[in-house]
Amino acid sequence: MSYPEQRYLAETGEISGTLRPAENGPDLSMATGTRVHYLGTGGSTNGAFGLYRWEMGPRPGGASPHFHRTITESFYVLTGSVQLYNGATWAKGLPGDFLHVPEGGIHAFRNTSGEPASMLVLFTPGAPREAYFEELADITHTGRELTSEGWVELWNRHDQYPV
Predict the structure, then answer these.
(1) Check: CATH 2.60.120.10 for 32-162?
(2) Which ranges of the chain does DSSP label H, i.e. alpha helix?
(3) 16-50 pLDDT, tens per residue?
């Protein structure tokens, strides 16, 4: 393993860091009560990664088993209890637990505890995942129904392959 190819070639550093204060509200709210904070997006990290804080309410919700062809995804439980699926078994994820899934790895998550829970979701490289979650939120908020073909088209557009 070695360092990747240099991406910054100037002789001196620059002032380019961004701070997102903790008190900023969520960027997305879903009908299930889940609130999503876009801490770092593919757009804001020059495609390096995406990092979200995923805050789930007490209502059951989460993602069904699926895989991605172009991105890795990692989950780090901050609070509460989150069921994490590694493609073979479901495990009770508690604060501090971490699941990494490489490209092609089947995975899922859900909160079935009846209590709020939160986690960090990291994906690399920084794909435009915001559009996927925003479209899902719109579907649930508006009651729009998709055909089977419509779901497949949505998933394919966003590197989401159900199992």
Answers:
(1) yes
(2) 129-142, 148-157
(3) 999 999 999 999 999 889 999 999 999 999 999 99
